[in-house]
Amino acid sequence: MAIKFCVKAGKSAVETIELINKAYGSASMSHANVYRWYVRLRDGREDVKDDARSGRPSIARTDKNVESVHLLTEDRHTTLQVIADHLNIGKETVHPIVTEDLGKRKIWTRFVPRALTTEQKQEHVIYCQDLLLMGQDEHFLENIITADETWCFAYDPATK
To answer: Is the pTM higher than 0.90?
Structure first.
């Protein structure tokens, strides 16, 4: 609106930029944007709203898309690019939906929940109590196999 006022008052582009900088300081528009709008308004444009753009909508992070992404992430091997292509939205939009809206984070090649639910915590307590009961057997520890994020397809005691 300030640029429009300066155009109507007969100020030059340089004077308009100086007035905008003086009035708004560090929060003012860049010189290029002030000049661009100055030219548009000088040439007869009255509307100061941005022109409509073609292509994808600028806001793709909707409740519908969040729900769709949630359904598509049921398969943990689905990539962000596949989800983005399926929903026709950008990969840069899918990532915050998965991480922020759905609360998942990437571990290795899978997205997993960021925090355990109350039900999952209760299940862990039950499993731990079962392990404590099984631990009373003196040969219990000999039957445990541990690993750090390693897939074991078969256990052969001879080769370990």
So the answer is: no
Domain boundaries, the chain: 2-42, 52-131
pLDDT digits (tens, 9 = 90+) for 62-112: 888 888 888 877 777 788 888 888 888 888 888 888 888 888 877 666 666
Rounded Cα distance, 81 and 95, in Å:
9
> 52-131: what fold?
Arc Repressor Mutant, subunit A (1.10.10)
Distance CA 37, CA 48 (A): 8
Q: Is 148 helix (H, G, I), strand (E, B) or coil?
A: coil
146: left (phi over 0), alpha (psi -120 to 50) or beta: beta
Tokens of 35: 């000049």
Q: Are 93 and 84 in contact (CB under 8 A)?
A: yes
